[in-house]
Design goal:
Chain lengths: 300, 161
């Protein structure tokens, strides 16, 4: 009834979602505004997940704090890390020579984020804060052992990617905190692999597998699975033991991949049953482990 | 709800509009400024019928609030190719290959493909498919669209060489 009355009063095509729109000119501004709204406001970055959610009436924030006016830098290298300012758009990541050189896994995976329009608007900080368990950037940042820099009323703190993602669309960010950037260890000479299975090209991943093997330390091999849990899942070290002990043995890769697949408990959904997802994880993890360890062997 | 006064630059012209915060750029271009070449589709950034160029890059007008577009250059299909003048060579390529049937997706296809041609003139067929994956067409089955864009790229390459 009330909805009909609203529609009669507002003949516009889209019924009002009623939010205050506020611009932040600096990250400090954004933090102050977040504090004022006491958890009722959302940060508007690229808007490629948030605005569809508002359009579909799945979210009802009292205010949107637009951080797009905040001046931002290009990705840069600092103290052995590649730094991605939070407002770095996916299209910048995809064409950045610096990212290709120091984070080739990210450079590759980012081309599978959404479509070209999503990549032109979507941002690194936005994708991480949205914390979709199928997201490519979250999985890759976790696989590369990145840390997320956040600003709040009490100042700056850094959160390892492994502690940042809590559950579906939920992060370790406090009510007054906003992501300002990401730091990734330089991974120029490393071996890596990425594969995602999608029902439709550009859709959310049914399952994604990211593998990163640092050049200097093969024991630092990291495997991250997307789409199989409530957050990107870093595979426990002991599950990788077979390949670490026998990196040249294809059977070891098979054994590890099978164990990894058996260890997860994905939900059955429209994209596939739990068994189907476990099967996909087994197949693609095995292939990527063989590829990445093969590359590492050749580079050595 | 409070309305904000905006100065939007669309197709090289300035438009003064009063908009509610929650009006998307699509709402304002289509409903307030009467631009039918920006179309309502999925309203979640997936289908590509509301594609416009924002400072030269394709974006979904349905996932951008109009208040965010102030200070930026917006170009719609009609700003890219004036309908009172000769069709753009890419439009001719679409016509020659039957790449436009009902026409609903065509504006978005053209803007996205022309941006690809500017950015990567050497794009392969696979690149074209990758770039256009976010523009849905329910008529053509896509082959004729990819053909048309490929022909246009080759034609440009020939023209420049």
């Amino acid at each position: 009834m009330s909805q009909q009355m609203t529609r009669a009063a507002e003949p516009d095509r889209t019924p009002a979602t009623c939010f205050e729109y506020q611009r932040a000119e600096s990250w400090q501004d954004a933090v102050e505004l977040l504090s004022l709204w006491e958890g009722e406001a959302k940060i508007l970055a690229g808007g490629q997940s948030l605005v569809p959610m508002l359009n579909l009436r799945l979210a009802f924030p009292a205010a949107l704090i637009d951080v797009n006016p905040i001046p931002t830098a290009e990705p840069y290298v600092d103290d052995g890390h590649l730094v991605l300012p939070a407002l770095t758009r996916h299209s910048v990541l995809a064409r950045s020579e610096l990212v290709r050189r120091h984070a080739p896994l990210l450079s590759h995976a980012v081309q599978f984020v959404g479509n070209v329009r999503v990549r032109n608007r979507g941002t690194v900080g936005g994708s991480l804060s949205h914390a979709d368990p199928t997201a490519e950037i979250a999985a890759v940042v976790l696989a590369m052992g990145g840390t997320i820099t956040v600003l709040g009323r009490n100042g700056t703190r850094t959160i390892p990617a492994g502690d940042f993602f809590v559950t579906y669309l939920t992060t370790a960010l406090a009510e007054d905190e906003v992501v300002t950037g990401v730091r990734l260890p330089l991974a120029g000479g490393s071996s890596w692999g990425f594969h995602e299975v999608v029902r439709r090209y550009s859709d959310f991943a049914t399952v994604s597998v990211s593998v990163a093997a640092p050049e200097v330390d093969p024991a630092g091999l990291r495997v991250v699975l997307g789409g199989v849990a409530d957050r990107p899942l870093l595979v426990g070290g002991d599950l990788l033991d077979p390949v670490l002990q026998a990196p040249d043995d294809p059977e070891a890769a098979r054994t590890a991949a099978t164990r990894i697949a058996a260890s997860i408990t994905p939900d059955s959904d429209l994209h596939g049953s739990a068994d189907h997802k476990r099967h996909l994880v087994a197949v693609h993890t095995r292939r990527l482990l063989e590829q990445v360890l093969g590359d590492a062997g050749r580079n050595a | 709800m409070i309305k904000t006064q905006l100065l939007l630059t669309v197709n090289g012209r300035e438009h003064e509009v009063w908009v509610r915060n929650d009006r998307t750029l699509l709402d304002v271009l289509h409903d307030d400024l009467g631009m039918p070449d920006v179309r309502y589709g999925c309203n979640e950034g997936v289908c590509g019928t509301c594609t416009v160029l924002l400072d030269g890059s394709p974006v979904s007008a349905c996932t951008l609030y109009a208040v965010q577009a102030e200070g930026h250059e917006v170009v719609t299909l009609r700003g890219w190719s004036d309908p009172t003048e000769e069709p753009h060579p890419l439009q001719k390529a679409f016509l020659e290959r039957g790449a436009s049937q009902c026409g609903f997706c065509t504006a978005g296809m053209l803007l996205t493909a022309s941006h690809l041609a500017e950015e990567r003139p050497e794009a392969t067929r696979e690149d074209i498919r990758h770039e256009l994956v976010g523009n849905l067409c329910r008529c053509t089955g896509y082959t004729s669209i990819v053909d048309a864009v490929e022909a246009y790229l080759q034609q440009r390459e020939g023209g420049q060489g």
